[in-house]
Amino acid sequence: MREIETSRFGPLRYEDTESIEFPKGLPGFESEREFVLVERPESRPFLFMQSTTSPALCFVTAPVALLVPNYALGLSADDMLTLKTDESAGLDVLAIVCAIENQPPTVNLLGPVVINRRARRGVQTIRDDDRYSARHPISAKDSGGGSC
Amino acid sequence: MLVIRRRVGESFWIGEQVEIEILQIGASQVKVGIRAPKDITVLRTEVKLIQEANLESARQPSAEALQKIVDSFSDNPKPDR
Questions:
Q1: Are A60 and B66 within 8 A, CB to CB?
Q2: Which range of residues forms the domain containing residue B11?
Q3: Is the pLDDT of residue A146 over 70?
Q4: How far does A22 lie from chain B, in Å, by closest CA?
Q5: Residues of chain A found within 8 Å of residue B59, distances taken between Cβ atoms
Q6: DSSP secondary structure string, A48-110?
Q7: Could you say which DSSP state residue A123 is in?
């Protein structure tokens, strides 16, 4: 069991086996190599991705499947290697939420975070097509249908 | 936008230090080689977009702002607390 100080949650305790390693960090946060996923009942279905090394760094994420039904995940061979898996089934696919004051919230569908909980590995994948936006508007009505 | 035509093996310069060479042309992709000093950052546009989005997303929403998003997202509005 570990305990870290965080800006959002205060002291946060987690099991050693819960931390997820991001060998490459995230674009813009290349030195952030470890996160824990934090679930809070009042924030469901959103998930928090808290850095274990930077108390103030905590991304809000949402499962992509809830935002865009039939999201086409494009994992590169390199991503698969990082995730230590050879299939895309059983992976968590999360979109990072961007919520700036006085602006409609958006989610990043261009670079979803993919996590293999079994191997405790994660990667922010980078699509090489323009099928999805890095700033996809988020709303309840959106999950009902329609293409993007 | 400046447009120039190049064949495979030909190159051009941006400033005095950056050389761009066309290495291969495929049906839907072009392979480009870049010779530049180490301190020049070369990013694919997708990576730049994701980097910018990450940096903005790292500014955490307040608990109230977050709750608003959560509430607007859930199909069934929660009963008053």
A1: yes
A2: 1-38
A3: no
A4: 15
A5: 100
A6: EEEESS-TT-EEEEEEHHHHSTT------HHHHHHHT-S-STT-EEEEEEE--TTS--EE--S
A7: E
B80 located within any domain: no
In this structure, are B16 and B48 located in the same domain?
no
Identify which of A35, A71, A47, B19 has the alpha carbon closest to the alpha carbon of residue B9: B19
Average pLDDT score, chain A: 90
Find the closest chain B residue to A109 by CA distance.
Answer: B50
Q: Please, which residues have CB within 8 angstroms of residue A97's CB and are 6 or more apart in sequence?
A: A46, A59, A60, A61, A62, A105, A106, A107, A108, A138, B57, B61, B69
Would you say the ipTM is above 0.90?
Answer: no
Q: Tens digit of pLDDT for each residue in A109-119?
A: 999 999 999 99
Distance separating alpha carbons of residues B31 and B49, to the nearest angstrom: 21
Domain count of the fold of chain B: 2
For residue B49, is it within any domain?
yes
Instruction: Check whether residue B28 and residue B49 sit in a common domain.
Output: no
The predicted-structure confidence for A53-99, as pLDDT tens digits, reads as follows 999 999 999 999 999 988 989 898 999 999 999 888 889 999 999 98
Residue B79 lies in a domain: no
Statement: the pTM of the whole predicted model exceeds 0.80: yes
Same domain, B49 and B34: no
pLDDT digits (tens, 9 = 90+) for A29-46: 999 999 999 999 988 899
